[in-house]
């Protein structure tokens, strides 16, 4: 849902404006298509977005009206991220520049933008060099994320990748230890976080995906004494991030 005028400034609607945005090479977060739209230039827009790997989402004409603030959208609009995405290489390069062992957070299908924003906020103050999110089934860097991060998004490098499992393999090849957070893991307090590391935080409901969990070097957990067996994703991430910072202090 769009909540602010700021978010409406991150959207372009109408066939020709959208085509021009695509031609400009500007990074597009997602394409919105009304259910009833199709044919001609709409098909061209969809094809161009598919080729670039842009997330394409069908919405009702009424919802598109709302997204576009009542402007004549002609059944199509594109949304831009509130902040430019980085690359994994840029994140690792930033850690190297600071002469620090890499510290990354991997969000495995965190879908709530408030959770992602809260994770970014804590990451910025706890020494995280960058965050990795997947292109699909994940909150993107929209205005809600920017607002919830309380300004931290302006300083935090966020990379968006096609395949989290493949990215974990690449990180491990570069000497980064990958720790997945799950309730069936080993007590996190027994882990050495002084090494180059990445924390994997799973989806709010499903947790870490099975394949992603198998790629991790180790599964860690937070001990629970209450009657419920899980924490909010951003809260769990915050505890673990501060543990890493403590180990490195």
Task: Please give a quick description of this structure.
By secondary structure, the protein is α/β, with parallel strands linked by helices. It is 38% helix and 20% strand. It is elongated and about 60 Å long.
Structural description of this entry:
The N and C termini lie far apart (40 Å). It is elongated, with a radius of gyration of 19 Å. It has helices at residues 5-8, 15-24, 40-52, 61-67, 88-97, 113-125, 143-148, 164-173, 210-215, 233-248, and strands spanning 11-13, 30-34, 55-59, 76-79, 103-107, 130-134, 158-161, 177-187, 197-201, 218-221. Mean pLDDT is 90; it is low at 1-7. It folds into 2 domains: 5-79, 60s Ribosomal Protein L30, Chain: A, CATH 3.30.1330.30; 88-248, 3-Layer(aba) Sandwich (Alpha/beta knot). Helix 7 (143-148) links the parallel strand 6 (130-134) and strand 7. Helix 2 packs parallel to helix 3 and helix 6 (113-125) runs parallel beside helix 10 (233-248). It has 10 helices and 10 strands. The protein has a 6-stranded parallel sheet, sandwiched between helices. A 4-stranded mixed sheet has the order 1-4-2-3. The protein has 249 residues and is an alpha/beta fold. The longest helix is centred in the C-terminal third of the chain and has 16 residues, at 233-248.
